[in-house]
Amino acid sequence: MTDLARPPATTPARTHPPTRVRAGRLGAGVAVGVLAAAVAACLLAPLLWPLDQSAVDLARTRLAPSPDHLAGTDDLGRDVALRSLYGLRVSLLVGAVAAGVATVVGGLVGAVAGTLGGRLDRALMRVVDTVAALPHLLLGIFVVAMLRPGLGAVIASIGLTHWLSTARIVRSELLSLRTRPFVDAAISGGASRTRVLTRHLLPHVLPRLALATTLMVPHAVWHETALSFLGLGLPPHLASIGNMINDGQRSLLTGAWWASIVPGLLLVAVTLALAVLTGRWRDRLDPRVRAELHL
Amino acid sequence: MTAATAGRRRLAGAGAVVRRRLLVAVPVLAATSMGMFALGAASPIDPAQQYAGAAVFTTSEENLAQIRANWGVDDPLPVQYARWIGNLLRGDLGWSTSRHEPVTSVLAARAGWTLLLVGTALALVLVASVLLGTLAAYRRGGWFDRALRAAAYAVQSMPVFWIGLAAIAVFALALGWLPAGGLTDITATGTDPADVARHLVLPVTVLAISQAPWFVLFVRDAVAESLRDDHVLAARARGLPGRTVLFGHALRTALLPFLTLVGAHLPELVGGAVLVETVFSLPGLGAVTVAAALGADFPLLAATTLATAVVVLAANLATDLAYAAADPRVRLDD
């Protein structure tokens, strides 16, 4: 460790870049493969699999994984692999919609703060800082509890807790754009505030906004999964990954680990692949903002 | 200028900062509580029916109306809000409708276990992430660095309750090394510290592992960055041993921003604790919160959420002050 003839901090990084680049490409390739397989499986499963995902069969409960049931059956005799695919579909759909809602809320707040500036800007950013200091999950639980658990409540809960980073991104982006010469040119050309905002500023913010939304999807999915796991999310009959892990908890103590571990594994694989790909997109868009975008 | 006067000068602004932060925190907390109250008022649940429970089917409409009148739930909203806040400020947190006891006694009985879980996990994650992150930064690009980063990214996408269930499946059920849940053995009559410690090993480790990625990656990047700093190069040029340079120079400068990260990640840690407590059936605030949410128990939910917010805001303020105290370059005049 005390070998100073070869400064360890820089040398390995300099001799290894080819491996790292290859590793990065490999990671992205695997991620694309995982996502493509998951999407294909979600879309094709209903056509190719001659089983009903919600068919209860009390004679075949808690069967271990076998060629008939690739991931075994749960405590009601439902096929875990098939139900996981349906659950993934529900979770991703809810996650995407909720991420969209959060982006709209955050985008509006950020746009108001960034364009109007002044006192309103400071006040809004204080609100953002404070909501960031509240535990997301507790706030989410509170929202769901007051609205009664259900699809709408879950989406509202995610939307109300996940808009902060988008608001920050949009605001700082607008603040830096406002000082650019083309904005001055547009204003001196007689463009109205709305026109400057919609025709000149917004197109520059859109790529960043799209990226922020995509980065948000895994977080939204995790939030939904956590709520559903607690029994506060989607209605129990709807197969979502969180509901399945919650159901599987009952079988865990009798040794049927697959009922909750398999759906979770699928979720981890897909969200990890999503995170890897959006991470590469982010690095390509602007390598300098890495720290800022850590949600 | 002695170190003492320098320190005093640096912290001269501390009182003003605390005052200014409170000036902001109070209206913000008021707004938060107002928002929560509005949401509670918009909720479709009738507190009187909820109080009556299953007896609602046999309770007469007059009795329900009497309960409503006693509680003043038909008063105008601002009146109700003022009454609620007034009670909160006097230390009366209300009556928990899901547990049928005062909210204060629920908090008093439960908060300690949650603090123990969160505190131990935080200590564990700090020590582990500083060690692992520094090692990874020292040989960055090497196999350990790459493996650690890959593991961190993987763990980041694992829900904490899923890690918990997997840990139960492996360490409690398959191997039988540790208990699967609870705080004490079911045969135990009191809380024997050794028994409690054995029951807390899995929950604390699971919570720490789930929170570790951010901290490990942060330490790794910060140390890697500061290994390139001038003072580190200078120390190396003076011929100091590598270990001294790494821990004495590079790590020390890298650790300062770490304090801010700890403050910013406390809310995550609390959320994780709620889930971990549910998985391992620990008698902390998490399980109570979930039960309260299922029963739409507004007083208890509002109290736990607001109390957590106050604790987290106070901890953030403390980290900022500690940061200023530790770093001579930071001045406390905002």
UniProtKB/TrEMBL annotation, chain A:
<dbReference type="GO" id="GO:0055085">
    <property type="term" value="P:transmembrane transport"/>
</dbReference>
<dbReference type="InterPro" id="IPR000515">
    <property type="entry name" value="MetI-like"/>
</dbReference>
<feature type="transmembrane region" description="Helical">
    <location>
        <begin position="92"/>
        <end position="116"/>
    </location>
</feature>
<keyword id="KW-1003">Cell membrane</keyword>
<dbReference type="Pfam" id="PF00528">
    <property type="entry name" value="BPD_transp_1"/>
</dbReference>
<feature type="domain" description="ABC transmembrane type-1">
    <location>
        <begin position="88"/>
        <end position="278"/>
    </location>
</feature>
<dbReference type="InterPro" id="IPR050366">
    <property type="entry name" value="BP-dependent_transpt_permease"/>
</dbReference>
<keyword id="KW-0812">Transmembrane</keyword>
<feature type="compositionally biased region" description="Low complexity">
    <location>
        <begin position="1"/>
        <end position="16"/>
    </location>
</feature>
<dbReference type="GO" id="GO:0005886">
    <property type="term" value="C:plasma membrane"/>
</dbReference>
<feature type="region of interest" description="Disordered">
    <location>
        <begin position="1"/>
        <end position="21"/>
    </location>
</feature>
<feature type="transmembrane region" description="Helical">
    <location>
        <begin position="26"/>
        <end position="49"/>
    </location>
</feature>
<protein>
    <submittedName>
        <fullName>Peptide/nickel transport system permease protein</fullName>
    </submittedName>
</protein>
<comment type="similarity">
    <text>Belongs to the binding-protein-dependent transport system permease family.</text>
</comment>
<feature type="transmembrane region" description="Helical">
    <location>
        <begin position="256"/>
        <end position="278"/>
    </location>
</feature>
<keyword id="KW-1133">Transmembrane helix</keyword>
<keyword id="KW-0813">Transport</keyword>
<dbReference type="InterPro" id="IPR035906">
    <property type="entry name" value="MetI-like_sf"/>
</dbReference>
<keyword id="KW-0472">Membrane</keyword>
Automatic annotation (TrEMBL), chain B:
<dbReference type="InterPro" id="IPR045621">
    <property type="entry name" value="BPD_transp_1_N"/>
</dbReference>
<dbReference type="InterPro" id="IPR035906">
    <property type="entry name" value="MetI-like_sf"/>
</dbReference>
<feature type="transmembrane region" description="Helical">
    <location>
        <begin position="159"/>
        <end position="180"/>
    </location>
</feature>
<dbReference type="InterPro" id="IPR000515">
    <property type="entry name" value="MetI-like"/>
</dbReference>
<dbReference type="GO" id="GO:0055085">
    <property type="term" value="P:transmembrane transport"/>
</dbReference>
<keyword id="KW-1133">Transmembrane helix</keyword>
<protein>
    <submittedName>
        <fullName>Peptide/nickel transport system permease protein</fullName>
    </submittedName>
</protein>
<feature type="transmembrane region" description="Helical">
    <location>
        <begin position="21"/>
        <end position="42"/>
    </location>
</feature>
<feature type="transmembrane region" description="Helical">
    <location>
        <begin position="244"/>
        <end position="266"/>
    </location>
</feature>
<feature type="transmembrane region" description="Helical">
    <location>
        <begin position="200"/>
        <end position="223"/>
    </location>
</feature>
<keyword id="KW-0813">Transport</keyword>
<dbReference type="Pfam" id="PF19300">
    <property type="entry name" value="BPD_transp_1_N"/>
</dbReference>
<keyword id="KW-1003">Cell membrane</keyword>
<keyword id="KW-0812">Transmembrane</keyword>
<keyword id="KW-0472">Membrane</keyword>
<feature type="domain" description="ABC transmembrane type-1">
    <location>
        <begin position="111"/>
        <end position="319"/>
    </location>
</feature>
<dbReference type="GO" id="GO:0005886">
    <property type="term" value="C:plasma membrane"/>
</dbReference>
<dbReference type="Pfam" id="PF00528">
    <property type="entry name" value="BPD_transp_1"/>
</dbReference>
<comment type="similarity">
    <text>Belongs to the binding-protein-dependent transport system permease family.</text>
</comment>
<feature type="transmembrane region" description="Helical">
    <location>
        <begin position="113"/>
        <end position="138"/>
    </location>
</feature>
